[in-house]
Write a structure and sequence with these properties.
The structure holds three protein chains of three kinds.
Chain A lengths: L1 H15 L11 E12 L2 E9 L16 E8 L2 H8 L6 E3 L5 E5 H5 L3 H9 L9 E5 L3 H6 L8 H15 L8 H7 L8 E8 L19 E11 L2 E5 L2 H10 L5 E9 L3 E8 L2 E9 L2 E16 L9 H29 L7 H8 L1 H7 L3 H4 L4 E12 L17
Parallel strand pairs in A: 1-4, 1-5, 5-6, 6-7, 13-14
Antiparallel strand pairs in A: 1-2, 2-3, 7-8, 8-9, 10-11, 11-13, 12-13
Helix pairs in contact in A: 8-9, 10-11
Chain B lengths: L9 H28 L6 H21 L6 H9 L1 H33 L6 H17 L2 H26 L17 H19 L15 H15 L1 H11 L1 H6 L3 H6 L12 H4 L1 H26 L4 H22 L3 H16 L1 H20 L7
Helix pairs in contact in B: 1-4, 1-6, 1-7, 1-8, 1-13, 2-7, 2-8, 2-16, 3-4, 4-5, 4-13, 4-14, 5-13, 5-14, 6-13, 13-14
Chain C lengths: L8 H11 L6 E8 L2 E8 L5 H14 L10 H8 L5 E4 L2 H10 L1 E6 L5 E5 L28 H11 L5 E8 L5 E8 L5 H12 L9 H8 L11 E3 L2 H9 L3 E5 L5 E4 L3 H4 L10 H30 L7 H10 L7 H21 L5 H12 L1 H5 L5 H14 L5 H38 L2 E2 L2 E2 L9 H7 L28
Antiparallel strand pairs in C: 1-2, 2-4, 3-5, 4-5, 6-7, 7-9, 8-10, 9-10, 11-12
Classes of the chains: A alpha/beta, B mainly alpha, C alpha+beta.
């Protein structure tokens, strides 16, 4: 009887091997990036499919590109993707999406309508970066072939990741982080945005790369501000930097501060600053206090203060403090007055620490937020000043022997 | 040298308790508890052990009585022949229901996340046949298999804990206890109804078949308590990393949690391998519940020949598959049933049976204090 | 036939000739001895000429002093003949058996008894290096086909008086001697008696090798995993004997069998104790990983590339897809093709005579390697996967284990192709249930892991501090757990 059971199972398995879920790798069209635009009432979905035949490390003019773009229209994203199957010879595989781009116009009308597809489909993983295209449609963004890294979608994702690591302006906002903010918990989402520089028709062909300076390229800009699920505006780079500091998303960044009125600047590189954000309710009014601790190393210095004296270092630190305070003030101004959206998370702190009060003011938080008073305390410390103490002499300066 | 597969030792008993305690919660039970308790679901595994002591003590008390009989014989000796058979049928029906539910939740999870095109019946048959194969080998095999499952689970959970640790943000836990502590206590008691049903199958092992008879109850208590505390890890991680809003959104918040694992920047897609630890726990419940039901059938219909034993086991397995397809045609009906009806109306049934048994045993002991009851 | 010998020598000789079909290699010498004739019968092929000439015939030449009476001849010859082993036999069964084993038979008229003198020829190669189980550092002698040499080699390692030997003769035509060795105060006497009884019950006509015995007495005949260790190294045998295990030595077989054996024993190598324990732990880790790799690699590769594409790191995904472009077969067919080709190569490598060796192995490597890839039959990554599988498969010292794993490897591949990682999960549960249900002569196959026995763990997976070597395996050495410090 036991042998019968073995045979039974083996036969069943043998008979069905190859059916159902079995899909060979070369039968799949691996999608590297998806872009969504809404035109009137229909969705235009653009899909970048990796061309697996062409994998050389150099690109010459006249050869195939490494990706193929397909676009289709439909009443929902799923329908549009189905339409693509009429053009594409292989089955679309969405498991390795590198990036999802939403056009600006579409984002302004609200993303809740179509975000459902990305949540429900079981193949789509939810950890890719989610960007808005500033001043452009997603299709245009996806058609541009950027240099250095061969696959455009991966290139974009890598750009965002690298910038996330070393540039304080950008932070990698994954899809699930964005989703998280769409619930009323006192914070709205800030989403990475990209824009096209020098848009031209040549952007989508290999000619774009035939010169050492490509004509058209993509650049990441400051984050976009969303209220609930609608895009309401963009922060510029400086404000974006402040936003990242408050949200503790900075891994490494550069702060450039003016030393005096003569346009002399020094720069420090900072690692993640320690930020403490607290919102308390004082006299029935919310009051935010922001404490920032910066540890920095001086990397570029163009001022006249002599750095071999300790009190000068304290002066430089004060300059850094002033600069940081001004950055934070700018971003709070932008969030409160310009966009009127709590993208910084003041309300979230009330929700987390003072739940009973939050329940009272939750509905009106968007009106209360612009009136919130705040105080900023920044503490900067220069840990190292680099290899030289003072800048190189400009010539004509005598050395006292 | 050829010994029958009958004896298990106390450590295996405890490990059985541990794996069985996790079985129902890790699948759908976790989703239900998170949607009930919302923000504070992570506190439930810390409070539930207090309430869990009561059913465990009941169980141990019952196992200690008449150490050479399993639960069916005990019920018949306590309640008499006819009422005893009736109660046996009810108890077996309950365990069969637990079996069907575990099978359904395991297969549904596999179909939803891994193999969307495979028909449900086929996959369920594969699962149950493997479980029946384990059942025909005897309780000792089941206990040893459970030990190996336990070790594999520890490795998988260890990987999850270590690689997800950097993503924890404690502020997502706040606000803590927004509505006070009373709702949490209520939810803890309800969550017990998802922890205990598989553990009740342990009553089928007669006490004489356990080596280390003196200490086994300490082992069992420890095992069940540790299994509840083990649940702290998934709940805490889910709430602190994925945040409660997203956790409510997704069908399997734990699976979504595993998306974030990123080992050395290369292996970003390991959620399929790591979520297997759920399936291992559920498999333990499948094994023990099938063993329970099969033992009942063999005892009631007095089947002794090996050939017929195997045939009956296979038939029970296939019946479980068919009934599960019939009872839970889609997931919403199943979850609604488990959320609203099961903890309040169905789980108390075996609890009441056990309580009555305990009372009867107590009365019997009072009547004849010299009877040999351990 | 247990027929008694007749008093007339001529009748005995005629009977012998009739039974052996007048075999020309049986020599019958008639020697006059005082007033009587003595008949010396031996089989030329299996007896040692020198012994017969120098000791037996020479004696009869020299001893002419005292005349004996007829019925005392046998006793006197027995007492005086300068040879080390003389038996008195009185039936045809024994006579023929001893004659054909190389003994010399001495018959006299008027006596119904005969003398059998041990004069066996050594028909075997000397003690050589162990060829199949090589280790880097340690004793290299190996057991031979000679039964006495084998037992002698083992006794040389353990000169204790508690190393007992029980002998059983098995095989109706081959009449092999089977020796069961065990250390009396450590091993389980019930187990020994059980095995001896079982061996006595074996009914078969010949036992060419020790494996036949194991086929008869093992309880897990239908299982692919072996429950005995078969080794040709006497140092390994003595190690296991000290743990309380039982060694079975079969005449004409070069391999000794050690029972009971559990899964962990197959993952040890004989040379593990001859190097520093910390360094050996490194090798052990690699060996454990290798078992898992050899079992699961093709299956995981197939599952990842056909069902669960998310698990592939992205950079590899594109390269795998590009590699598979020109290949006509589905992945599972590729995998089975390569596996079967590798097994064919391995088998035929054993049969190639030395002279043709190198040319054919070059062809084989070409077939499996570049040419197949260039022709577009397999993809390069599949060659790598199968090569890894095959090479890690050879890391275990006991081929029985690896041959057992081959079946499971194929099952895993089929399951991975049909159900992806769930298939691997189900079949691995199958494998676990299968392993945990085996008992090797009373000891569960997966001890000490399941049932967890912490006191046994110290030597099974990792060799811990040398001090722990002083404790034996608790499950087999039930009585005597602590070593050295004298036998008490």
């Amino acid at each position: 009887m036991k042998k019968f059971k073995w045979l039974f199972i083996i036969i069943i398995l043998l008979l069905v091997s190859g059916c159902w879920q079995y899909r060979e790798l070369n039968d799949l069209a691996i999608v590297s990036a998806i872009g969504v635009d809404k035109i009137d009432t229909e969705y235009l979905v653009t899909v970048q499919v990796i061309n697996t035949r062409k994998q050389s490390h150099t690109i010459q003019a006249g050869e195939e590109t490494t990706v193929t773009i397909y676009e289709a229209k439909g009443k929902s994203i799923q329908e549009a993707l189905n339409m693509i199957s009429l053009e594409c010879p292989k089955e679309l595989y969405l498991g390795h999406i590198d990036i999802v781009v939403i056009g600006e116009e579409t984002a302004r009308t609200g993303i809740k309508d179509y975000i459902d597809f990305f949540l429900r489909d079981r193949e789509v993983r939810k950890i890719y970066p989610f960007v808005f295209a500033k001043g452009a449609m997603a299709t245009d963004v996806l058609k541009i072939l950027p240099p250095i890294i061969i696959l455009p979608g991966t290139n974009l994702a890598n750009m965002i990741e690298t910038a996330d690591e070393i540039n304080g302006v950008i932070s990698n906002r994954r899809f699930d982080n964005v989703l998280d903010c769409m619930y009323k918990r006192g914070r709205h989402a800030g989403v990475t945005a990209i824009e096209i520089v020098n848009q031209s028709e040549k952007g989508d062909s290999l000619d774009n790369l035939s010169e050492s300076k490509p004509k058209t390229k993509l650049m990441i800009t400051g984050p976009a501000v969303m209220r609930d699920d609608k895009l309401v505006g963009f922060l510029n780079n400086r404000e974006g930097f402040g936003y990242n500091i408050i949200r503790k998303q900075v891994k490494r960044a550069v702060i450039t501060f003016p030393c005096d009125k003569d346009n002399n600047y020094g720069s420090v590189t900072i690692d993640s600053p320690k930020v403490k954000l607290d919102t308390k309710i004082k006299n029935n009014k919310p009051f935010t206090s922001i404490k920032i601790d910066i540890a920095s190393s001086l990397t570029s210095y163009n001022c006249k203060l002599d750095l071999s004296k300790d009190k000068n270092i304290t002066k430089v630190e004060n300059m850094i403090v002033k600069e940081t305070e001004s950055i934070i003030k700018d971003v709070i101004y932008a969030a409160q007055k310009i966009h009127k959206t709590d993208v910084l998370g003041f309300g979230e702190k009330i929700y987390q620490n003072y739940y009973k009060d939050w329940e009272k003011i939750e509905k009106n938080w968007d009106e209360i937020f612009p009136t919130v008073k705040y105080e900023i305390k920044v503490n900067a410390r220069i840990n190292s000043i680099g290899s030289v103490i003072n800048p190189a002499p400009k010539g004509g300066e005598k050395n006292d022997y | 040298m050829i010994t029958k597969n009958k004896k298990i030792n106390a450590f295996q008993f405890a490990i059985l308790g541990l794996m069985l305690g996790n079985a129902l919660i890790i699948g759908f039970g976790g989703t239900i508890i998170i949607s009930l308790a919302k923000q504070d679901a992570w506190l439930i595994p810390l409070i539930a052990p207090i309430f869990a002591l009561i059913p465990i003590v009941l169980l141990i008390y019952i196992i200690n009585y008449e150490p050479d009989k399993n639960i069916f014989a005990k019920i018949q000796s306590l309640f008499g022949k006819y009422i005893g058979s009736l109660i046996n049928i009810i108890l077996t029906g309950f365990i069969a229901f637990v079996l069907i539910f575990s099978l359904w939740s395991a297969v549904f999870f596999s179909v939803a996340q891994y193999l969307s095109k495979v028909p449900y019946l086929f996959l369920a048959t594969c699962f149950i046949l493997t479980a029946i194969y384990g059942v025909t080998k005897g309780i000792e095999t089941i206990a040893r298999t459970n030990e190996i499952f336990f070790f594999i689970n520890i490795i998988l959970i260890g990987i999850i804990v270590i690689f997800l640790y950097p993503y924890i943000k404690l502020e997502h836990i706040q606000p803590i206890l927004p509505r006070g502590i009373m709702p949490i206590i209520g939810h803890s008691v309800i969550s017990l109804s998802y922890i205990f049903p598989p553990i009740l199958t342990l009553s089928i092992i007669p006490k004489n078949n356990i080596i280390d008879q003196k200490k086994y109850h300490w082992y069992l208590i420890l095992g069940v308590l540790i299994s509840i505390v083990f649940l702290f890890i998934p709940f805490f991680y889910v709430i602190s990393i994925v945040t409660i809003n997203l956790a409510e959104l997704f069908r399997y918040p734990g699976y979504h949690l595993l998306y974030k694992i990123d080992i050395a920047g290369i292996f970003t897609g390991l959620e399929n391998f790591l979520s297997l630890h759920w399936l291992f726990s559920t498999f333990s419940a499948l094994l023990m519940c099938s063993y329970f039901v099969c033992k009942y059938t063999h005892q009631t219909f007095k089947i002794k020949q090996r050939k017929y034993i195997i045939i009956t086991n296979i038939i029970i397995g296939l019946l479980a598959v068919i009934v599960s397809d019939f009872l839970f045609p889609n997931s919403i009906a199943g979850i609604e049933f488990m959320q609203y009806i099961f903890p309040y109306y169905i789980f108390p049934i075996p609890l009441i049976i056990f309580i009555i048994m305990a009372i009867l045993i107590f009365l019997k002991k009072r009547k004849n204090p010299e009877t040999n009851i351990n | 036939m247990k027929k008694k010998l007749s008093k007339k020598a001529i009748e005995v000789i005629n009977e012998i000739k009739k039974e052996t079909g007048n075999s020309p290699d049986i020599i019958i010498k008639t020697i006059p001895y005082f007033n009587h004739y003595i008949y010396v019968i031996f089989n030329e092929m299996v007896s040692n000429r020198t012994t017969i000439n120098d000791f037996i015939l020479e004696y009869f030449e020299s001893d002419r002093k005292t005349p004996y009476k007829k019925d005392e001849i046998i006793k006197n010859i027995k007492a005086k003949l300068p040879v080390h082993k003389i038996n008195i036999i009185d039936n045809y069964d024994e006579l023929l058996y001893l004659l054909l084993s190389g003994f010399t038979i001495i018959l006299t008229d008027g006596n119904d008894q005969a003398l059998a003198i041990e004069t066996k020829e050594k028909l075997n190669s000397g003690i050589q290096e162990s060829k199949a189980e090589t280790i880097i550092k340690g004793p290299k002698d190996a057991l031979t086909e000679n039964y006495q040499t084998n037992i002698g080699l083992i006794r040389k390692k353990l000169k204790t008086e508690s190393l007992w030997l029980k002998e059983v003769t098995v095989g109706t035509r081959s009449k092999n001697k089977v020796g069961i060795m065990y250390i009396n105060d450590i091993a389980d006497i019930d187990l020994v008696n059980y095995i001896v009884d079982k061996i006595k019950d074996i009914e078969i006509d010949s036992i060419p090798d020790s494996n036949y015995i194991m086929e008869m007495i093992s309880e897990n005949k239908n299982n692919v995993f072996p429950d005995y260790i078969s080794t040709e190294r006497p140092d390994l045998v003595s190690e296991h004997l000290l743990e309380g295990k039982i060694a079975i030595i079969v005449e004409n077989s070069q391999y000794a069998v050690i029972i009971p054996a559990v899964l962990i024993d197959f993952l040890h190598s004989p040379g593990d104790y001859y190097q520093k324990s910390i360094n050996v732990n490194y090798t052990r880790i690699i060996r454990f990983l290798a078992i898992i790799i050899t079992l699961l690699t093709p299956a995981i590769y197939i599952a990842i590339t056909t069902h669960n594409h998310e698990a592939i790191p992205e950079k590899l995904l594109i390269s795998f897809a590009a590699q598979r472009d020109g290949v006509p077969f589905p992945t599972i067919v590729e995998a089975m093709l390569m596996l079967i080709t590798f097994e064919i190569l391995k088998e035929s490598d054993l049969r190639i005579p030395q002279t043709l060796g190198s040319a054919l192995s070059i062809v084989g490597a070409l077939v499996l390697g570049d040419a197949a890839v260039q022709a577009g039959i397999v993809s390069p990554i599949m060659v790598i996967v199968i090569a890894i599988t095959a090479i890690t498969g050879l890391i275990v010292s006991y081929i029985e284990m690896i041959h057992g794993l081959r079946w499971w490897r194929i099952l895993f591949i089929i399951a991975a192709a049909s159900l992806g990682i769930i298939g691997i999960f189900l079949i691995s549960i199958f494998l676990i249930i299968n392993l945990t249900s085996i008992k090797s002569f009373g000891i569960p196959y997966l001890s000490p892991i399941a049932p967890l026995n912490i006191s046994n763990l110290n030597n099974s997976i990792f060799i811990t501090r040398k001090r722990e070597l002083l404790k034996r395996n608790v499950l087999t050495a039930k009585k005597n757990i602590y070593r050295s410090r004298g036998e008490d």
